[in-house]
Amino acid sequence: MRVEIRDLQSEPVDHDLLGRVASSVGEAEQLNLDLLSLVLVDDTTMEHLNCTLRNTAGTTDVIAFEAEVGPDGQAEAEAYISVPQAAAQAAEHGHSVAWELAFLVAHAVLHAAGYTDADPEDRAAMLDRQRTILQEHKGLSGFAQN
C-alpha cells in the first residue's frame, strides 16, 4: 500500500510516522489497497468538508471513506484528518499529539477496510481494534501513547 500525505495545515507533523502507522494497520488488516491518501487539514477546512460531505455542522477529527476501485483498476481510499482536533483530543486524554494522530490514521485505515462506527456497538469494536493494532505495532511505529 502506498501512502500519500498532503499537508494543508501549518502545524508540524511527522509524515513518516503517519505513513508507517497506516502501513502497519493495513498489514494487520490484510488490506488490499493500492493507495491511501491522507489529507491533513485545519479546522476551517474540516468544518467545510464536514458540511459538504456529511451535511453536518462544525468540525470533526477524521472523515474517511471505504476503499473503492478507480477507473484505472487501483483500490484507493481517502481520509481527512484535522490536526487541531487531534491536538485538542490529545490534551483532553492526556497523551501526545503523535499518538492521537496515529489513532486517527488507524481509524481512517479501518474505515478503508470496511469498518463502520455508525452505531455504538460497531464503534466500540472499531475503537478496540484500533487500540489493539497500535499497541501491537508501537515499537515499529516509533511513538508512545504518553
- The total count of strands amounts to 5
Can you summarize the main beta sheet?
Answer: 5 strands, mixed
CATH class placement: Alpha Beta
CATH architect. name: 3-Layer(aba) Sandwich
Termini separation comes to 28 Å
User: CATH superfamily name?
Assistant: Metalloproteases ("zincins"), catalytic domain
Mean pLDDT: 92
Poorly predicted ranges: none
Helix content: 40-55%
* CATH fold title: Collagenase (Catalytic Domain)
Question: Per the principal axes of the C-alpha atoms, what is the gross shape?
Answer: globular
Tally of separate helices: 6
Number of domains: 1
Radius of gyration: 14 Å
Helix and strand element order: EHEHEEEHHHH
- The chain-level structural class is alpha/beta
Beta strand %: 15-25%
